[in-house]
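Blackboard transcription, Thursday session:
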Amino acid sequence: MEAACLPEVMRKGRTLTVKEFCALAYILDERIHLVSSSSMNTIALIPAAINQPTPEELALSGSWTARGIGTIGARLDAVSASASLIVDGARIESLDTAGAWVLQKLLRRLRGEGSHVEMRDLPPEFSKLLDVVEQQAADQTDTPPLASAAPSKLESLGRNAVAAYEQAMALLSFVGECALAFAGCIAHPARFRWRPILFNIRSAGWDALPIVGLLSFLLGIVVAYQGADQLRQYGANIFVADLVGLSMLREFAPLITAIIIAGRSGSAYAAQIGTMSVTEEIDAMRTLGIAPLDMLVLPKIIALLIALPLLTVFADVLGVLGGMIMARAQLAVSFGEFLDRFVKAVSITAYLIGICKAPVFAVIIAVIGCFQGFRTKGGADSVGRQTTRSVVQATFLVIVADALFSVAFSALDL
Amino acid sequence: MQNDTPADAAVIEMSKVSTRFGDHVVHTDVDLEVRRAEIFALIGGSGSGKSTLLREMILLHRPNSGSIRVLGVDLQKLGDDEADDESLALRQRWGVMFQHGGLFGSLTVKENVGLPLREHTALDDVLIDEIAAWKLSMTGLKPEVGAQYPSELSGGMMKRASLARAMALDPELLFLDEPTAGLDPESAGEVDQLVLKLRDLFGLTIVMITHDLDLLWQVADRVAVLADGRMQATGTMSELSKMDNPAIRKFFDGPRGRAAQEQEQEQEQKQEKPQGKVQTSNEFGRPSSKPK
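(Written on the board underneath:)
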């Protein structure tokens, strides 16, 4: 059986061209692979083959199935039309829809080129299948395939611009809705939902203490370590307190806290609300007369407004502690000396400047997270995309806001 | 067509299958046999373990005891490895349509249908697209649906697309989980016809879970009733309708059960005359679509 299905070239016993050799190697390899993979079938899959012994005759053999026809496409294109063609299907071992489709395509092309094609010896169940395909192919050609040309650069630029504009407008209106809902809650304090607020303070604040503490401690160490070398050269060791104190309290602690929370809680908000809107929970909430903004968004904003400044204070403390430890190890500045200098160098204003950024960052993170969650449309895929977007946008906006703060503070000489 | 087992051999054999989740016993000692080219329905109340049984047939869950043979392969003997050659070959011989479609949200409908072909065959992309479009139209979807994403489809279209994907590799065995749940009566009727057409055209064996009484009466050859963790009975709908077992009577004595039964009887009378709705032609000399 193996010998019978070896390609024509092998039996003729002449030298193979490189192309034929490669094709043969591929076919054999394929067959070996198929035999091993279908060991339980015991029947090896013989690839579909087509031969044109005379211009008027086409002999088909092998498995005309999705797995069997694999690479036959090129050889089908090589089949030439002639006035009358007899197609011998007696040696076709099996035919499935994919094989029938390919065969039908070939017959249609030959007929289109003016051949009179006659099928011979095709087993009845195969010809039945072929008829079904023919019917379908006729129906399908009636409806031309959808023209889906890739948009030009200009067009995609325009579309992106419109999408960005639309998103910005949607964000603005979401901020407005949140503000209105917040004002409504202030007017009717009974509308505040304390339980979710407390829950969110715990999950976004208390539970984040270890990671915020660890990272700001490390940041303090890094700042002190980088400064130590420079300060030692000038013998200005004690100024490490100025360096660590000002940079941590004014900039690093609020920023690192906000970025951690954007990655940790902002993404969670987007994923939670996104999944809820995919599973119609948001709609259910509306029909039950519960405003999703009151239930889902305001508690998160309020909770972060409380938690983020507190986390920032915690980050301040641990960042300075890290700097102190590094100062003692590298610059021989004792804790007492460090704190002495720290009180003189760092004013209460520097501390408050750091803290007052935190609520702004909190609002950015919570609003962006919830906003992206509500924009989730469709399935699981979309939830992932919106979550990513929420983290990227929140981090971006936090840093932009921080830059604006710096400009504003320097204009105010603070 | 590509059947290498004898025509009357059992496609699925389950014997003494028991499943527990912790202390909760889902079913004990379930015996079941599905024959070639038959439409086999599995019914039972919510929580009776139908879906678990189906998941055990398709290698998604292993029973605690008992043996399952599908297409001549003993599932207990297959390794746990998802991608070992034998289970991979077996998985390519069946298609599964999940209750909620199970379509991949990140791919278009056409890509979803073409995915099995792309993964498991060496066909070129143009051909795969053509075949995918054909499979979609075979399940009654318009060609433009192929370019859409699953989230843009209605429930009925999602089921059809899922069926098209299950059919992509021309499986010998098709599993349908609630094929008509959530469909309007017209679409459900079309699914009835589609299931019959597939069986008659390709000689498919079809196993389905359903609560749809019309589907059971019009399409299913044999029905197995699962209740109280046991297989209560197996037989044609008319055989089951004569049984006294209270677990089975539930399906027939409600107002819906009676209506579907009456409709079926009317149709049987009509079929005394040539060509009723159910009786599609049987090209391959297979047993008629409904045993009488």
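Lecturer's comment: The CA atoms of residues 5 and 208 of chain B lie 22 Å apart.
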